[in-house]
From TrEMBL, chains A, B, C:
CDD domains: LbH_WxcM_N_like (cd03358). This is Acetyltransferase-like isoleucine patch superfamily enzyme. Gene3D superfamilies: Hexapeptide repeat proteins. Pfam families: Hexapep (PF00132).
């Protein structure tokens, strides 16, 4: 452990954890084996970091031996946060209180994962994105750079709703797209670059680039360049 | 306490807790009096189990003296989970991180309660169901066996929205039904056996069996056997 | 510290915390400097109270030096709750498990903030309101007295979705209004006094008083006095 870390009370740091310089760890936080915190990382209170994937027999198998959680320089996590092993958070990321990020996730530099937001497994989130409060980013999703996901947005990756195993595909949200609050994205839909999805819309098929869609199901409100 | 339990650091286990064989309890977890964990139960870090019902004067009275929380054999709970006394989880149930289950709830064997999902009081959930991430199962709800509740599904049990007390009735979701992500179910609606509700739908009245409904308000898309 | 407080195990109470008489604090809870708990306040387990606002460079600046969290007489907080400094909860408020309340928030006496509900910064909530489970109250919002916000209601305060800074305005929900579950409110909309918004509705513009609106987008179903 670095000499300069500031570690709270009742903190559990397992063997094999690597702490950078000037790390701050809040009270009652648990950091499990295999976690690496970069320089100047700050973690709030009552967090659990580096969880190994588990599940029951009806859930997807994800484990392939012990994996690492790597958190980049200057990244800050709130309180009551959970993050799994097998995931990499870039530099200067912010993760709000009560958020949860699963295994095999990559989050680009400068991105904000909001309070109580959930990011499921096998998902890639680009740089400088904003994933707002209580948004749900499903598994097997691709979010490119500079994307805005509004509060309470919901996604799905399972068009057979449990009836067929292992055919999961989440949305693909291209660079600069903006998704309004409480919108619903169906499995595998592509939201084009720079496109705006209205609040409460239900996106059932791919959209163009730089358009505006809204409604249930979502329809084109404004075409590209108009 | 059994000799073979594996108990983390800073764990609080109150008097009167019963632990089965080969139980695993994560760091900083609190297990309150009246909780019974079956053999091979695993609990993550920073959980609170066996909470006694409380509330303020504007909330429904639910207490009737001290009650037990009973957790069946081989059931696994994630981290940062809360479960109340007066509830029974069957064998081989899985409860994701940040989930919360209130009092007077029964969950059948093999069911998955997803990450950050909420189950309110006086609710029965059958066996081999999947309650996906961040789904909200309201109070006074019946969910039969083999039901799939998609992510972020919302339910209500109070058609007077606080204007009349004690007339609560949640949805009744019959065997094998599947509810798409972010769908909304109104108080007391019945979703028929094997029926599929589209993502983002708002279900305002009972559906048939083995049909497909979608839209706002939800309308019949596909009839039984067609 | 008062002599009569009942404090759990592994509790962290920082210097400068003020505890009223007959306060109860659950196990593993963290109470940070600047927090003042009134008489008979009860706090569950694994909470974090008095968090100082932070964020990264892409987030709104909210800090203006150390601020206080003041919690009124007889108020009860569940377990796994987070509340920020700079906020004031009135007397006999109830805050459910997993809920989160940010800085510069005022909550009136007797109000219920439900399980897993989120209240963002710069928001005012009146007396005797019910904010149901998993509801999302965005920043810069005004909720008057006796309002009912159903489960999973979503709000937004940013009509430019991150494209322009510092022009945030949340909804204004007038006295006695009732919002159905999973409804979506757009930035700056006014919901009139006594008005009912249907479950799953998307409110895109101001409503009258004492009317009923529903649908996507929300339309008038019932006029005042009819």
């Amino acid at each position: 452990m670095t000499e300069k870390a500031k570690v709270g009370r009742n903190v559990v740091i397992e063997e094999g954890v690597v702490l950078g310089n000037h790390v701050v760890i809040g009270d009652n936080t648990v950091i499990l084996s295999g976690t690496e915190l970069g320089d100047e990382v700050e973690v709030g209170a009552n967090c659990v970091l580096g969880i190994q994937p588990g599940g029951n027999k009806r859930m997807r198998k994800t484990g392939e031996g012990t994996r690492k959680l790597v958190i980049g320089k200057g990244t800050k996590l709130g309180s009551l946060v959970s993050v799994y092993a097998g995931t990499k958070l870039g530099d200067h990321v912010f993760v709000g209180d009560h958020a949860s990020i699963r295994e095999a996730v990559t989050v680009g530099a400068g991105t904000v994962i909001g309070r109580s937001a959930i990011v499921e497994l096998n998902t890639t989130i680009g740089a400088n994105c904003t994933i707002q409060t209580s948004a749900y980013v499903t598994g097997d999703t691709i979010i490119e750079d500079n994307v805005f996901i509004g509060p309470c947005v919901s996604m799905s990756n399972d068009k057979y709703m449990g009836a067929k195993a292992y055919e999961m595909k989440g949305p693909h949200i291209e660079s600069g797209a903006k998704i309004g609050n409480n919108a619903t994205l169906l499995p595998g839909v592509r939201v084009g670059a720079g496109t705006i999805v209205g609040a409460g819309a239900v996106v059932t098929k791919d959209t163009g680039n730089h358009v505006v869609v809204a409604g249930v199901p979502a329809r084109l409100l404004k075409e590209e360049g108009k």
